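Quick question, first post here. What does this chain look like in 3D?
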Amino acid sequence: MRLDDFDYDLPPGLIAQHPSPHRGESSLLTVPVAGPPTVGPFSGIVESFRGDEVLIVNDTRVVPARVMGQKDSGGAVELLVVEPLADGRIVAMTRGTRLRPGARIRLPGAEARLLRRRDDGMAELALTGVDDLWTWLEGVGDLPLPPYIERATEADDAERYQTIFAREPGAVAAPTAGLHFTPALLDALRARGVAVHSLTLHVGPGTFRPVRDDDPRDHRMHSERYHIPPETQAAVQSGRPVVAVGTTVVRALEAHARDPAADRTDIFIYPGFEYRVVDGLVTNFHLPRSTLLMLVAALAGRERMLDAYRHAVAAGLRFYSYGDACLFRREGGRWT
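> Answer (accepted):
Ran it through. Tokens below.
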């Protein structure tokens, strides 16, 4: 397996820079196990369900995690707050003036001190002057849009870069497959008999980390926090086909199947992976040579996936976070 095996040609003009005018108005590429893909409105996804499925969504909420500060010397520093630790400590990515352990950063209404650099490239800092991290970030932070959205954050992003399921704060990127769903669409799925359940996986910045190894199996994933409620676990174990909304849901479900006691995962899913839980996947289109593309290839088969992507490019579909979606069924799964 080589990194080049997961490359494809994408005209830059197909990278969505804004969401569709209204939520739920995106397109859907439906990819059967056999036969050509078809393109239609995302609302048509209801017709792909028999009514005996379990649909799992991610209820994480994106926080305005990007905060600007200054060193005592005056140098600008940008923090991307990734997660809280105990005793007022946080994990963050830093950008700007080089920081050494002990360096202090003045932030809006707060101060941070660099404690150490971790092996994964993250920084651990002590944060003072903040009673509640999420409330503070809501007041001083900016929404961290993905790097391929080449524009400043706009007012509309505060609502459109959150799914309708978003409840648990902690993500630095949206689980973007969920952006296509509307309350009316959920009602239609439930009326058809589909059981809708949620889990929480807080998406970290590692989701955008490029794979640099010629052999992707040498790549190391960042760890992410997750929680699967008992009622979701029971639904997954019911024997009904499981359809995941997004790669984050896939990672949480398949990690839990391997270690039910864990609350973090750095699972890396690529071709050859043995799926134990997920039978179908609703997902956006992913970057070439990315770990997310490899996850889809592991479920759909590399050639079927790449053929679907070529079809999407030819049809002029919109790619990445604010783009369109695709629906894959796993060959040999319970949902065929």
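The first helix runs from residue 133 to 140.
The first strand starts at residue 27 and ends at 31.
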